[in-house]
């Protein structure tokens, strides 16, 4: 069986070169290099270049193109396509761009339309800038924090405290529950009509991933599950999640919502999905990947080749 390809936003898209984060001389040389790349992030939005229907990441080349940016606020990401690359957070009003083909867009919606390695890099940059922007003060004493190790550590400026903060992620489980012939999908009240997705929720302290799967499915649907198996993972920096994908088999199929997080939960057959009775998640999400793998395991035609399949509406590529 061939290895499963990585999910969107995952994979070996970057040499992180973590050993360089503490090497001040190497970092200064990278900043002085006019070929060094910078990934702009403005209000969590990524800088995107559109040429016709083709989307690519827009990079700023050379720090001289970023007047007024404090080098201490840059975040070293690593080496991308042979060049040093930093993330740079832009604040204030929307940046005025002279190139009409460049705009700041929501990466969550367009990641699947970008080259995979660029989507992963933009996600990394977005996650790091978000973490830095939301941890500007010490959680212990309230003093301002100061970046160090090329933006990968935030240290308290209070000499009596000097606590350190490191980039954080929030682990969340996401699961495709099946009884063999049907898949369990739910929807939130805020979603447009017809949209459904797999069951998901955050892992709680003192809880294993498998226990979190069982709990979340029970809380949101009332369904009991067994045979919880790991599938794959996906970075999901919206704002800071790591999605841990699972499949599970239902040993009790009656739906009884314990909480009100979901507006509706239903069992869907492959025929329902093929006929467009339900709108599936965006194709670059792990949720779609879980549904797709289950669907393809018991269908004569792959999900992506079914003409009647309905997906969440996204901007055209």
UniProtKB/TrEMBL annotation:
Cofactor(s), by name: Zn(2+); Mg(2+)
GO molecular function: hydrolase activity
Catalyses which reaction(s): a 5'-end NAD(+)-phospho-ribonucleoside in mRNA + H2O = a 5'-end phospho-adenosine-phospho-ribonucleoside in mRNA + beta-nicotinamide D-ribonucleotide + 2 H(+)
InterPro entries in alphabetical order: NAD-cap_RNA_hydrolase_NudC, NADH_PPase-like_N, NudC-like_C, Nudix_hydrolase, NUDIX_hydrolase-like_dom_sf, NUDIX_hydrolase_CS, NUDIX_hydrolase_dom, Znr_NADH_PPase
Residue span, Nudix hydrolase domain: 167-290
Gene3D superfamilies per UniProt: 3.90.79.20, Nucleoside Triphosphate Pyrophosphohydrolase (3.90.79.10)
Family under the similarity heading: Belongs to the Nudix hydrolase family. NudC subfamily.
NCBIfam families according to UniProt: PRK00241.1
Designated name of the protein: NAD(+) diphosphatase
Organism of origin: Steroidobacter gossypii
């Amino acid at each position: 069986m061939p290895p499963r390809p990585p999910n969107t936003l995952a994979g070996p898209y970057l040499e992180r070169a973590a050993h360089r984060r503490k090497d001040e001389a190497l970092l200064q040389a990278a900043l002085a290099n006019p070929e060094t790349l910078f990934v702009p992030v403005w209000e969590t939005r990524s800088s995107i270049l559109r040429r016709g229907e083709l989307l690519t990441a827009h990079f700023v080349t050379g720090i001289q193109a970023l007047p007024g940016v404090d080098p201490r606020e840059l975040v070293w990401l690593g080496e991308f396509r042979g060049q040093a690359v930093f993330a740079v957070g832009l604040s204030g009003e929307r940046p005025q761009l002279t190139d009409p083909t460049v705009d700041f867009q929501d990466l969550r919606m367009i990641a699947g339309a970008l080259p995979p390695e660029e989507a992963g890099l933009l996600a990394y940059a977005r996650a790091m800038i978000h973490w830095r922007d939301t941890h500007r003060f010490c959680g212990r004493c309230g003093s301002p924090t100061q970046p160090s190790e090329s933006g990968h550590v935030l240290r308290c400026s209070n000499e009596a405290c000097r606590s350190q903060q490191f980039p954080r992620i929030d682990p969340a489980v996401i699961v495709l529950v099946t009884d063999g012939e049907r898949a369990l999908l739910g929807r939130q009240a805020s979603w447009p009509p017809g949209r459904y997705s797999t069951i998901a929720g955050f892992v709680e302290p003192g809880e294993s991933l498998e226990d979190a799967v069982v709990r979340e499915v029970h809380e949101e649907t009332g369904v009991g599950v067994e045979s919880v198996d790991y599938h794959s993972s996906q970075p999901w920096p919206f704002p800071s999640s790591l999605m841990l994908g699972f499949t599970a088999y239902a040993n009790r199929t009656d739906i009884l919502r314990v909480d009100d997080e979901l507006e509706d939960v239903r069992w869907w057959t492959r025929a329902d999905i093929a006929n467009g009775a339900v709108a599936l998640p965006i194709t670059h999400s792990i949720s779609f990947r879980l549904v797709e793998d289950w669907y393809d395991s018991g269908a004569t035609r792959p999900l992506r080749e079914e003409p009647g399949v309905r997906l969440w509406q996204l901007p055209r590529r």
